[in-house]
Amino acid sequence: MVQSRETMIEVTDVTKFYGPIKAVDSLSFRLERGEVLGFLGPNGAGKTTTMKILTCYMPPTTGRATVKGKDVFRDALEVRSLIGYLPENAPLYHDMTAREYLRFIAEMRQIDTRDIVRRIKHVTRTCGLDGVLDRMIGTLSKGYRQRVGLAQAMIHDPEILILDEPTSGLDPNQIVEMRNLIKEIGKRKTVILSTHNLSEVQASATRVLIIHRGKIVTDASTDQIQKTRGRNRYEVVLAAEDGSREELRKALRGIDEVEKVDAIDVKEEDVWSFEILGKTDADLRRPIFKFAVDGGHTLLELKPEKASLESVFMELTRE
N or C: which end of the chain has fewer CB within 10 A? Predict the structure, then answer.
């Protein structure tokens, strides 16, 4: 018997006004234990407002948000104990060492004094802070400061992590390290990852929620979004032959299941490349291969193209 997963966050018809401006518009979604949610949207879409509501920085104007059944407005202290939050600009004190800062946060979190040393050791190991604990935070690189910020979010061992632009300002090596760290954390905790770096979401998230103008425009797994929002596209490469490329493009367009064929410019003079768009989600590889065989065309390459998360994001949030 399959057990139902535990609901960790539930947002129901949440709306937030800043004066006459509606930042969040009737937002509703549910997040279960063990999910890593990529929370996406263009600037001004309402992401930060939603995260501030979930982390008890502000109440919604209308609607309700709960964390493990606790209301973010009425049960704010209990909710805060369940959540670790890394804002885009981590709240660090540059004149403290990393160890002093983590101890200060642990004390603020009212962690038992006897347990503080163990918790600092745990987040130090998890976040890769060995060797810099006794250095002043102001002397650390951007990557290590982000790690200290993540460690403060984890110091009280929360069940939920909310991370806002965790890879902001990091170099490529640091981004890979942070991505691997988030994936590892996601095996044990529920994570909301808000970022403009869509490759991070594609690499780390199990689910994607995109909002635009305060409303949800899609909510599904990465694969589902690419399958349902991305069109059925193929790249076809054929050897150049007698006749013209335009004639061959029109012939490909004559395949029953094909909706559109575009010629793609390539540097090689002896090949012709095309992008083919299907009318439905039906697999076009067999009819395209049959077309090549029946017409005596030399098929060099045939591959389906999965829509990128970037292209889906642009389609869904285009003004």
Answer: N
